[in-house]
Structure formats: C-alpha cells, structure tokens
C-alpha cells in the first residue's frame, strides 16, 4: 500500500496557480479637482484585472474599488496617474468613543468622519495623576 501511495503522488495534477484573492472593497483618498482628474483615476483602475466596480466621489475625494484585487496594487495604480493618494484614513463619527480628541480631529475630513487612529489608553496610576490637574476635578484649584 505504501508503494501505491508513493506512485500516486507523481500522477496527481497539482495546480501551479497562486491563491485566489478574496472579494475586497478598497477605499482610497485621492485629491481630484476636475472631471478630467476623476476620469483619469477611474479609467486607470477600472481596467485592472479582477475589478468589478469603481465608484468615484469627487466631493469627498474618495475612490471605492470592489473586486478581487490587491489593495496595494490599486493604490500604486492610482499613484501612477500623478495624483497624491492614500488609503481612506477616516471612519464614521458615530462609532468613535470620544471623537473630540486632538488626534482624531481633522479639519480636512468629510462631514461626519474623523481620522482613524488608535488612542493610547492610560493606566490607572497615570489616570489618577492626570485627574488631579483636570478641569473636571472640583478640588484641582486647591492643589495648584
């Protein structure tokens, strides 16, 4: 039985293709000023292999690509048009715990969005010390 199994490994057909990409939605921030910019970006991306749909929102400076694509290749293709591009850095305002932190606020963000950053969490000792000098503490004036 071992010899038969050994010989069967030579007879099996193995695929040399790479892994198939999963369906993805890639959001990119691209500065677009006119219809020509919008058309150039859209045409560059829609002819890529695996792209199912391309949506351009010039008002928000956002390009959304759906399909079986690599996000880094899409970003590179958009940058090759001569436009400054980056992955979409914003998240909706209502899912952020405290959207008024200085790291999150970005005046260039579209309405209803804040920047997607991780906010450092203070340990209990640092939190207690910072509370001593906080405006929320009614006894803070006596300490100062």
UniProtKB/TrEMBL annotation:
Pfam annotation, one family: HMA
One annotated GO molecular function: metal ion binding
Keyword Transferase listed: no
Organism of origin: Buddleja alternifolia
Main location group: membrane
Any one cellular-component term (Gene Ontology): membrane
Record InterPro entries: HMA_dom (IPR006121), HMA_dom_sf (IPR036163)
GO BP: plant-type hypersensitive response
Domain named HMA: residues: 23-86
Name the UniProt record assigns to this protein: HMA domain-containing protein
Superkingdom field: Eukaryota
Family, per entry: Belongs to the HIPP family.
Topology in membrane: Peripheral membrane protein
């Amino acid at each position: 039985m071992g010899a038969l199994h050994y010989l069967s490994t030579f007879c099996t057909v193995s695929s040399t293709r790479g892994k198939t990409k999963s369906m993805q939605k890639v959001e990119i921030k691209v500065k677009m000023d006119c219809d020509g910019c919008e058309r150039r970006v859209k045409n560059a991306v829609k002819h890529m292999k695996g792209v199912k749909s391309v949506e351009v929102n010039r008002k928000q400076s956002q390009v959304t690509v759906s399909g079986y694509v690599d996000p880094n290749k899409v970003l590179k293709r958009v940058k090759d048009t001569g436009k400054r591009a980056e992955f979409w850095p914003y998240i909706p305002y209502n899912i952020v715990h405290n959207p008024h932190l200085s790291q999150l606020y970005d005046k260039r963000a579209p309405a209803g969005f804040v920047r997607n950053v991780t906010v450092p969490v203070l340990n209990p000792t640092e939190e207690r010390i910072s509370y001593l000098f906080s405006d929320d503490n009614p006894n803070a004036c006596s300490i100062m």
